[in-house]
Design a protein that fits this description.
The chain is of the alpha+beta class. Helix content is 34%, strand content 13%. The chain has 3 helices and 5 strands; from the N terminus they run E-E-E-E-H-E-H-H.
């Protein structure tokens, strides 16, 4: 039996050729801290990914990018980790640090301690928020 999120409102499940399938919303981070995002599919249906903002200036350029497949990136720069997992891990690190500094009972923290904690958590979220083009 299909669950509600597997069946469309029309009852017809859409079928796409692999190269036309909707791109996943996942982004990956490689061992060097570079972020890779879905950019299309090969004719055989393999996911193509791109690194839109390389950390190394020499890797930036004009024009079309080399069509890196997810498997090629994994072999060359892996292991890859889902970006959401990296963000969650960073948030846990910050949370643990503050619990060790100020104690586990947050209701006993002073206002400045709470403000410092919230600022640190906001900075972590900002690291993972996509930059908005001006």
């Amino acid at each position: 039996m299909a669950t509600s999120f597997q069946t469309s409102t029309t009852g017809i499940t859409p079928v796409f050729p692999l190269w036309e399938a909707p791109l996943p919303q996942t982004a990956w981070v490689d061992r060097n801290g570079e972020t890779w995002v879905p950019a299309g599919h090969t004719a055989a249906g393999e996911l193509i990914v791109a690194c839109p903002e390389p950390l190394n200036e020499d890797d930036r350029g004009e024009g079309p990018s080399f069509p890196w497949t997810l498997g090629m990136v994994e072999r060359a720069f892996g292991p890859l980790t889902a970006r959401a997992d990296v963000e969650e891990r960073r948030l846990v690190e910050v949370d643990t640090k503050f619990l060790e500094l100020y104690g586990p009972d947050q209701s006993r923290w002073k206002h400045w301690q709470v403000d410092t904690y919230l600022d640190a958590m906001t900075r972590v979220h900002a690291e993972f928020t996509p930059a908005v083009a001006a």
